[in-house]
C-alpha cells in the first residue's frame, strides 16, 4: 500500500461532507435575512437571500454562481445605500471560481471583483461630502485586498487538489506496477518449478523403466544383475522423491522448501548411477553460483534421459563438464541412433535445456553428430568460481 492510504493521508471532505458544508455556510450567511424580514426591512432581507442562496451550487457551477451573486450585488448598489451581510458571499463566490472554474472565468471574475471594489467604495462613501480622495483610495485598496486574497486562496486550493490527485494517481500506478511485478515473478517461479518437475520426473522414471526392463530379463539367468538393477531403481526412486518434496515444498504455505538443490558436486553421483556412461568431470569440485550449478546439473540429467529414451539399448554416452574462469562448459555425446532416433514430438527436454542456458545468458546447441550419435553442448556464463570439496569421475 502507498503512503496515501495510511493515516498520513491529507484530510479531505467527501461528496456528502461538501454538500453539508455548503448548506451550513449558506444557513449562517442567510440567517440575518430572517431578522430583516421580521422587522419589515424586506428589501434588505431579499438581497441577502439573493446573494447567499446561489452558494449552494458554487462547486458545480462556479462561474454561473459568481455571475448571479455579482448581479445581485450590483442591484443592491442601485437600491440600497449601505452594505449588507450578504455581500460576504461575493469573495466566497470569487474563491469558488478560482478553485473550481476555468482559468478564463477566473480572470474575468478577478476583473469584475476590481470593478466591484471601485463601485462599492464610491457608493458607500458618496454620502460624505468631506471624504477625501485618500479615504476613497484606502477603502478601495482594502476591498481589492479581499478580492486578491479570495483569488489566491482559490488558486492555492486548486493547486493543492491537483497535487494530491497526482499523488493518488502515482500511488495507484505504483501499486499496479507492483502487482504486475508480483504476477510476473509468480509466473517465472511456476515455469521454473515446471522445468524442475519435468527434469526430476523424466529422469527418475526413465531410469526406473530401463532398470526394471533389464531386471525382468536378467531375473532368470543372472539374479545378481537383477539385484543391482533393483537397487538402482530403489536409489533413483528415493532421490526423485527427495527432489520432488523439495519442489513441492515451494508450493506449500506451511513448508519452506529449503532442501538443497543439485549442484556440480552432485554430478559424479548422477553419472555413477548410469550404465554405459563415462565422465570427465574436472570441474565437479568447483563452487559456482547455485543457479549456474543447478542449470548445468539439469542439462546433464536431461541429456542422459534423452540418451536412454532415444539413443537405443546399446548406446554409450560421455559427459564432460569443465569450469572456466567465466563459464561452465557442458558436453554430452552418445553413439546411438542420432538423426534416426524416433521422436513423438511430445517432449520438452531440449526446449527446457535451452531455456536453462538462456536464463543465464548462455548458449545451447543440440543435434545429431556427423559421425553418428547425438550431441548436447551448453555454455553457461558465471561471475566467478572457487575450488571446493573434490568430486569424482567415472571413466
Automatic annotation (TrEMBL):
SUPFAM superfamilies from the UniProt entry: ATPase domain of HSP90 chaperone/DNA topoisomerase II/histidine kinase
Reactions accelerated catalytically: ATP + protein L-histidine = ADP + protein N-phospho-L-histidine
UniProt EC number: 2.7.13.3
Chloroplast keyword on record: no
GO annotations of cellular component type: membrane
A Pfam short name: HATPase_c
Lineage, highest ranks first: Bacteria, Bacillati, Actinomycetota, Actinomycetes, Propionibacteriales
Presence of keyword Transcription regulation: no
Residue ranges of the TM segments: 20-50, 62-80, 100-122, 134-153
Gene3D superfamilies named among the record's database cross-references: 1.20.5.1930, Histidine kinase-like ATPase, C-terminal domain
Start and end residues of each Signal transduction histidine kinase subgroup 3 dimerisation and phosphoacceptor domain: 189-254
The entry's keywords: ATP-binding, Kinase, Membrane, Nucleotide-binding, Phosphoprotein, Transferase, Transmembrane, Transmembrane helix, Two-component regulatory system
Protein's UniProt name: histidine kinase
Sequence ranges assigned to domain DUF7134 in this UniProt record: 18-161
Record GO terms (molecular function): ATP binding; phosphorelay sensor kinase activity; protein dimerization activity
The Histidine kinase/HSP90-like ATPase domain, residue ranges: 295-382
CDD domains associated with the record: HATPase_UhpB-NarQ-NarX-like
Amino acid at each position: 500500500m502507498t503512503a496515501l492510504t495510511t493515516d498520513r493521508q491529507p484530510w479531505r471532505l467527501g461528496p456528502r461532507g461538501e454538500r453539508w458544508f455548503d448548506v451550513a455556510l449558506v444557513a449562517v450567511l442567510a440567517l440575518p435575512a430572517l431578522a430583516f424580514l421580521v422587522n419589515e426591512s424586506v428589501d434588505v432581507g431579499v438581497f441577502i437571500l439573493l446573494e447567499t442562496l446561489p452558494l449552494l451550487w458554487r462547486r458545480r457551477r462556479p462561474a454561473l454562481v459568481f455571475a448571479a451573486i455579482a448581479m445581485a450585488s450590483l442591484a443592491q448598489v442601485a437600491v440600497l445605500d449601505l452594505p449588507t451581510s450578504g455581500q460576504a458571499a461575493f469573495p466566497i463566490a470569487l474563491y469558488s471560481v478560482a478553485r473550481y472554474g476555468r482559468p478564463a472565468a477566473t480572470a474575468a471574475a478577478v476583473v469584475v471583483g476590481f470593478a466591484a471594489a471601485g463601485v462599492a467604495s464610491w457608493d458607500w462613501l458618496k454620502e460624505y461630502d468631506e471624504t477625501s480622495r485618500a479615504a476613497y483610495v484606502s477603502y478601495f485598496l482594502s476591498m481589492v485586498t479581499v478580492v486578491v486574497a479570495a483569488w489566491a486562496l482559490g488558486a492555492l486550493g486548486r493547486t493543492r487538489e491537483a497535487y494530491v490527485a497526482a499523488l493518488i494517481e502515482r500511488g495507484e500506478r505504483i501499486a499496479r506496477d507492483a502487482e504486475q511485478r508480483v504476477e510476473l515473478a509468480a509466473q517465472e517461479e511456476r515455469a521454473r518449478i515446471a522445468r524442475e518437475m519435468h527434469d526430476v520426473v523424466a529422469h527418475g522414471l526413465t531410469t526406473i523403466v530401463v532398470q526394471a526392463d533389464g531386471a525382468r530379463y536378467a531375473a532368470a539367468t543372472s539374479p545378481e544383475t537383477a539385484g543391482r538393477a533393483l537397487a538402482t531403481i530403489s536409489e533413483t526412486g528415493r532421490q526423485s522423491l527427495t527432489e520432488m518434496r523439495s519442489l513441492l515444498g515451494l508450493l506449500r504455505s506451511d513448508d519452506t522448501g529449503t532442501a538443497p538443490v543439485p549442484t556440480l558436486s552432485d554430478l559424479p553421483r548422477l553419472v555413477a548411477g548410469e550404465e554405459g556412461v563415462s565422465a570427465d568431470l574436472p570441474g565437479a569440485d568447483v563452487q559456482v553460483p547455485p543457479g549456474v550449478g543447478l542449470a548445468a546439473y539439469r542439462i546433464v540429467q536431461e541429456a542422459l534421459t534423452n540418451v536412454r529414451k532415444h539413443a537405443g539399448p546399446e548406446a554409450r554416452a560421455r559427459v564432460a563438464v569443465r569450469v572456466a574462469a567465466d563459464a561452465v562448459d557442458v558436453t554430452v555425446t552418445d553413439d546411438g541412433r542420432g538423426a534416426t532416433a524416433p521422436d513423438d514430438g511430445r517432449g520438452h527436454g531440449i526446449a527446457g535445456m535451452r531455456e536453462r542456458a538462456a536464463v543465464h545468458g548462455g548458449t545451447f546447441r543440440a543435434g545429431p553428430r556427423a559421425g553418428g550419435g547425438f550431441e548436447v553442448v551448453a555454455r553457461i556464463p558465471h561471475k566467478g568460481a572457487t575450488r571446493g570439496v573434490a568430486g569424482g569421475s567415472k571413466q
